[in-house]
Design goal:
Elements lengths: L1 H22 L3 H7 L1 E2 L3 E3 L18 E3 L11 E6 L23 E7 L21 H19 L4 E7 H14 L14 E5 L10 H11 L7 E4 L13 H17 L19 E6 L19 H11 L2 E2 L2 H18 L1
Parallel strand pairs: 1-10, 2-9, 3-4, 4-5, 5-6, 6-7, 7-8, 8-9
Helix pairs in contact: 1-8, 4-5, 6-7
Amino acid sequence: MGITRNRLRSSVLLALLTALLVLVPSERGQAQSGTRAFQVSLWECCDVPNPIPSRADTDIREFGEETAQPTNVPSIMVVNGHSQLEMPLSDSSCNPAPCDWSRIVAVEVDEPYHPIDGDLTTGNCTTPTDPLLDQINTDLYNRSVDLAALNPKARFWVNLHLNEANWIQSCYFQFGIVTLPVFNKKYFDVISTDWYGQHWVQHTTIQGFYEVVAQNRATAHQQVALIPGVYSSGVYGSQEPYLQEYFNYAESANQTTCNLPLGSQGITGIYDGCPVWVVMGYLSGNGDGAGDIGLFSTGSKSIRSIWEKEVALNPVTPTQKARAKVIPPILQLLLQ
């Protein structure tokens, strides 16, 4: 009887060891290719026709009112906060219709509060009194309900204008006032800002905004997105001096803590629980009226090389990292 139990135990251990080894990410493969702890996307806008990003350019495709939904790949839908927010999300949101909602992993509403933020000043940290604020919040909530019905696995993402982001971080670090809830609601799964031409400095500018978010999340599961410029020239000049700082911030945030609770979407397999959900580069086309030279243009070779070097790295999920750390102790226990 003892021999049978030992054989059974040995068989079970062998099966467990085999399964565990399959789950371990290949450290040799990772060392060869390099890794990153976040995913990337490109904001495909502002030029007709746009170049179509390849796997060498992006992990997740993006589309909006000027571009068609990519076929057979995960994608992010961008809703223009000025012109589209009042319209319900439906199959007519895609051109050509219908939408393939099963492949839409997030809906990003771009700068919905911008029409009312002209009077935001760092010396006045009271809630704006503009009557449009309530209507914007109502529209945002309704769009989040639309999305939950169309694809409950998709994230609802709101991108703030730099005016709101600057007001939020300035009021917090200069005056100790938490203004973030004015522009951040419990149904925002992801929040971000597009604030270009600024270095990442602790407690100020862009990094200050994300520090406030990290300390005052609307919900425990709320994630952030980073939106660096990936263009040369234009109103804010070349964004090359700033791009690597975005990657460094995302890498640091997701390496040290990827243990946020899951939201209503549950497990989606797309960096669940990570503080930084995605780094989305703006813009991949040319000419949004600001004289920008886009990522795919000849004049942007140097910044494109920085972007492509990062994209070439293998995105490794925190789950894989956790397995790599926990399996050696498990093996020792099983072999005792």
